[in-house]
Specification:
single chain, 249 residues, alpha+beta, Arc Repressor Mutant, subunit A, 3 domains, 4-stranded antiparallel beta sheet, 6 helices, 43% helix, disordered N terminus
């Protein structure tokens, strides 16, 4: 697909998520060489994707490592099948196969880990539910970041936190990312707001650094706000905004 100069900038998010076809990627690679704004957007999207991956990671139960190691000890490793040939050829074959064998061993360990987890029915159901929730959240966030009509704004909160908002009118969703957000005081919480023609509407909460999918209608929103509110939130902002930034049209 060929993009005009006026809309090629919207490919920054799908480029960072490796969601472009080869032709689009080559076209955007050429564009990046002369566009500082898109290079910054790609760097921001890559950082956001990394934070999403870190947020989705979960530590396994301590006992699971021992079960995995015990199971691995009982698995007989088969030697590689080699045809009779010269020592030099054997060494070359071993070198070529070293990485695939290592990867295969990693996959076997991962499969063993998953199998052992399945033995614990209650734990398995719990982790499966968590995995589905994380998958749905990541899919929703990725959809906004890669949306063709994505609107992006960067800002710095009054407490020093760096923020990014990506909104899609087509999907009626917005994603908020914060870095360096200090912990709120006891009994307080950070509440997000979407502005529509001067009216601020509740849009969810952000509790720490990371990325959240904002609540409410993002379509047509012209501003994003962040305030410190009593725990549980407020129907209207009750304090001066920690952050207030305009969304591009």
């Amino acid at each position: 697909m060929t993009h005009h100069a006026s809309d090629i900038h919207v490919l920054a998010a799908p480029y960072a998520l490796d969601a472009l076809d080869p032709g689009e990627r080559a076209e955007f690679d050429a564009h990046l060489a002369g566009c500082d704004g898109c290079r910054q957007d790609v760097a921001d999207f890559l950082a956001t994707a990394a934070r999403l991956a870190a947020a989705a990671a979960q530590a396994p139960p301590p006992a699971m490592k021992q079960r995995t190691m015990s199971g691995a000890d009982r698995v007989r490793q088969l030697p590689p099948r080699l045809t009779a040939t010269s020592p030099a050829a054997v060494r070359g074959t071993l070198r070529r196969r070293a990485l695939p064998v290592a990867l295969a061993a990693s996959l076997v360990a991962a499969a063993s880990f998953a199998g052992l987890a399945a033995w614990q029915n209650q734990e398995s159901r719990h982790y499966a539910q968590q995995a589905r929730q994380v998958e749905q959240h990541l899919a929703a966030v990725s959809g906004v970041l890669a949306a063709p009509d994505a609107r992006t704004a960067h800002g710095r909160a009054g407490n020093g936190a760096l923020t990014t908002v990506v909104a899609s009118d087509r999907q009626n969703r917005a994603v908020f990312t914060a870095t360096g957000l200090p912990a709120p005081a006891a009994g307080k919480t950070y509440q997000l707001w979407l502005g529509h023609d001067g009216t601020m509407r509740p849009a969810g909460f952000v509790h720490q650094d990371g990325t959240v999918l904002m609540d409410g209608d993002a379509a047509g929103a012209d501003a994003v706000g962040l305030t410190l509110e009593p725990a549980g939130g407020s129907a209207q902002p009750t304090t001066a905004p920690v952050l207030l930034m305009t969304l591009p049209a």
